[in-house]
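This part of the workshop introduces the protein records we will be handling. To make this concrete, we reproduce a full record directly below:
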Amino acid sequence: MKFLVFDLKGKFAHFRKFYTNSSSLSYLVPPRTVVEGVVAAILGFERDSYYEELSAENLLIAVQKIERTYKIVQTVNYIKATSVNELKNPNTHTQVPLELLAGYNGFVGFRVFVMPRDEKMYSQLKSKLESGRAEFPIYFGSAPFAAKTEFVGEFEAYRWEDSSARILTVLDTGLMKSLNLSLESSAGLALMKDRMPCDFDKDRFATKVKTYINDENLNPIWVDLDSSAQDKVYFIKEFSSDKELCISLM
């Protein structure tokens, strides 16, 4: 099987946490649903029309953070409305904190590994990525934050059959038996954990929510894998010279 690999880059990003209320807090990495939306925009799917076709069963996705980021908080004005008329002619506003991601190198960046199971869709997506043209504009979680794609290539992937691995991407904690923190390479880890949606139904309700970890210092994570990871962890030989560097599906 083959994965299409591309980089997503932008000046700022905001991936709103689904469990926040008035304060718009952001994830440190894009949830699977955000990447699903990016793929839908590239292919030209209409809004709310792609949740089944691009579900976790039909579209394999892994995400690697490739730029270190920090958070800033800006206050934005929203319309305060208690009736339909006030939406058309707002009288007052309410201020809401908005948490943004910014990059230490001037931009936010993620490497995305995708594989549509449908051959026709795979071919269409590959063509769009190679040309650098998307059917609809691509955003980093919210309309004010434009993003662009940079195609890395097409790579052969193999299921990882060992009981331990160095995971390069965001890791679903349900796939690991334990973290291996005894190695010298683990000394520089800055692990972050959060719960993120990974699938929607037709009404935009999250049908699956999982806990993920990633390293903010961009290091691979050594883990001992659970038996459930058998079909979720892959090794891409041509992409890395490291025999044990793997990607984990979201």
In short: The chain has a mean pLDDT of 89. The chain is about 10% helix and 40% strand. Helices lie at 32-43, 84-88, 119-131. Residues 2-248 form a domain with the Alpha-Beta Plaits fold (CATH 3.30.70.2660).
